Amino acid sequence: MTYKGFVKEKQGDGDGEFLVAAALSRVRQCAAGHVEIAFRGGRAPSPCTFRNWCTLVAMGLYVAALVCVLALCSAQLNALPQTPAPSDDYSGMYTFLKDGEFMQVTVEEQGKVSGFISRFGDSASDKGTFIDQFFKSGKIEGNKISFTTETVHGVWYSFEGAFARGEGKKPQEEGYYLLQGILTRNSADAEKKASAKVEFKSFPRDATPPQ
Question: Can you tell me the distance from the alpha carbon of 208 to that of 193, in angstroms, rounded to the nearest whole number?
Fold first, then answer.
């Protein structure tokens, strides 16, 4: 083999010892403007310019830097606390404990829940009266929901549970969603506090509240 244009030339099987010297010579000749490498068999010379080498190196460094920046940004975004967004729109009206009663649930941004319960009064002072109890606080995480109502006539409700799919085939049908969990009726009189496992069905979408 013959290395033309390098520091040394040699033919035979011991060409490995000239590899480093040949590479350094090639770099110097690239910087000068042109290198011709001819192998046994008369292969045509190949051009090489210092500018092309610098461009390739710069592009490689740019890509490496861009990958590092993207990786850092991704790590910072993953470190931020995130509230999972519900995959379904659970907002709407749901049945409550008795016929004629209902509950409005509205899922808002950042995992907040608002709404109210419309029910018949069951104490001596409001028995038979229709009462609206708005949510004092509420939150949702995925399909899990909890809320607590305002206190009206010494009574307030709290709920912890989850949404599930019901028998309805589409949102316009009753029971498309179910709200299942534990409902607690709290009272100023601690002895009257009671909890029960409940299941409320969604009203058909766009339905009007019961009169």
Answer: 32
Sequence-separated (6 or more) residues with CB below 8 Å from residue 172: 204, 205, 206
Distances (CA, A) of 75 to 69, 85, 183: 10, 21, 40
Confidence of residue 81 (pLDDT cuts 50, 70, 90): very low
| Residue listed under structure tokens 């042109």 | 34
Tokens 């609206």 belong to 132
Amino acid making up residue 35: V
Which DSSP letter does residue 119 get?
A: E
Report the distance separating Cα 150 and Cα 156, nearest Å.
6
> Closest Cα partner for 171 from 91, 95, 98, 107?
91
Which residue in 132, 186, 109 sits closest to 154, CA to CA?
186
Q: Which residues contact 124 (CB under 8 A, 6 or more apart)?
A: none
Q: Are 139 and 159 in contact (CB under 8 A)?
A: no
- Read off the amino acid at residue 81: P
Which residues, other chains included, contact 20 with Cβ-Cβ below 8 Å and sequence gap of 6+? none
| Of the candidate ranges 20-24, 110-114, 115-119, 121-125, the one whose mean pLDDT is the lowest | 20-24
Q: Rounded distance, CA 8 to CA 23, Å?
A: 11
Q: What do you get for the CA distance between the two ends of the chain, in Å? A: 100
